[in-house]
Design a protein that fits this description.
alpha/beta, TIM Barrel, globular
């Protein structure tokens, strides 16, 4: 297995590392703070910095690096295709205490890939070759990492992509086992992640449908990867990183009770508070998170059905109390209940999806 010594230290030596996947408009400083209190991952990745010829580093994303209270390393993610601008942004970010510089080559939102950035880069491997080379030349004092998918519309260029990643000596690959066009709808093609882990000289983090500590262990065994990257399941279950560490260490895995979930909801409300934001907007942001949390509250989806129409904080928290405190010592499900969908407009066939639609 590739050596991890050139990457930031993990929380527990000898265990496979875990990372919180970057999710735009979700994995900001408040959310990282809440996750950290439940059991931080080994590594955080920021929302992407949008890079163009005239862009400047977004201050709110910088705060997730400079003000992060968790004590865990934070990788700064870039999205863009203009090579000089990407080199400039990477050089600027290296002046901050980043764990590394990460290139987004996998965002599946149509409004993103249509601009030939994120997952759209996978349609132009010659440009990927130039972009990887330029960033590798720029990022020499910290790890240079890539997050991508197994292809754009299909996997015909997968081996060529792996060859480019090896050629430019990236330090870590986070690989989501779907194509860009598959969004989040298909099964995850773990066999492609296993091929990457076997062929590349760098560590690979498996990404996609890692829904629990048991699932993390199973995916590591199936793919031979060095670690896991977890996204949407960490919104649902912020204890998943701590649970995965316990599982991989052979220790008892603590289960979560509904009263702890209710406290997590309160904490999210507190840390996401911003002055002068209307109550309806705050409630809307909370519903982004609760769409995922609700997947493990009840098998019938009653919590989600009651929560989604709410528009006031009083109504929202009354629903939370009704479903989470009626039996506070009952267990929160380790896995999402079958058929309880967080984003039905995104996860059913023939529907477009973007990361901006993590709402009710």
């Amino acid at each position: 297995m590739p050596n991890l010594a050139h990457l930031p230290a993990t929380a527990e030596t000898g265990l496979a590392p875990s990372a919180l996947a970057p999710m735009q408009d979700v994995t900001d400083l408040p959310f990282m703070t809440a996750i950290g209190e439940c059991g931080a991952p080994d590594w955080f990745f920021t929302e992407y910095f949008r890079v163009t010829e005239t862009s400047r580093l977004e201050k709110h994303i910088l705060r997730s690096i400079t003000e992060n209270p968790t004590g865990r390393p934070v990788f700064a993610q870039l999205i863009g295709e203009n090579i000089p601008a990407m080199q400039r942004a990477a050089a600027e970010l290296l002046q901050y205490p980043v764990g590394g510089i990460d290139l987004n080559m996998g965002c599946p939102a149509p409004k993103v890939y249509r601009k030939n950035v994120g997952g759209g880069l996978l349609r132009d491997l010659p440009h990927v070759d130039r972009l990887l080379g330029s960033l590798r030349d720029t990022v020499t004092t910290r790890p240079f990492t890539v997050k991508t998918r197994i292809g754009f519309a299909d996997t015909k260029d997968f081996d060529a992509l792996l060859a480019l990643l090896a050629k430019h000596r990236i330090d870590l690959l986070s690989l989501h086992g779907r194509t860009v066009k598959e969004l989040y709808r298909s099964e995850v093609h773990y066999e492609y992640i296993a091929r990457a882990a076997a062929q590349l000289p760098c560590p690979v983090l498996a990404n996609g449908n890692i829904t629990s500590a048991d699932r993390a262990a199973a995916v590591l065994a199936e793919t031979g990867c060095s670690g896991v990257m977890i996204g949407r399941s960490a919104i649902r279950n912020p204890w998943i990183f701590r649970q995965a560490r316990e599982r991989l260490a052979g220790r008892p895995v603590p289960r979560t009770r509904l009263r702890e979930v209710r406290a997590y909801v309160d904490r999210l409300w507190q840390v996401t508070h911003t002055p002068d934001i209307p109550e309806a907007a705050r409630v809307g942001k909370m519903k982004k998170y609760l769409n995922f949390v609700g997947q493990s509250i009840d098998a019938a989806g009653a919590f989600l059905a009651a929560m989604r129409p709410t528009t006031t904080a009083a109504d929202l928290f009354a629903i939370c109390d009704r479903h989470l405190l009626a039996e506070p010592d009952a267990f929160f499900a380790d896995e999402p209940f079958a058929g309880v969908i967080a984003r039905p407009n995104c996860e059913t066939p023939d529907t477009a999806c973007s990361l901006d639609t993590i709402t009710s």
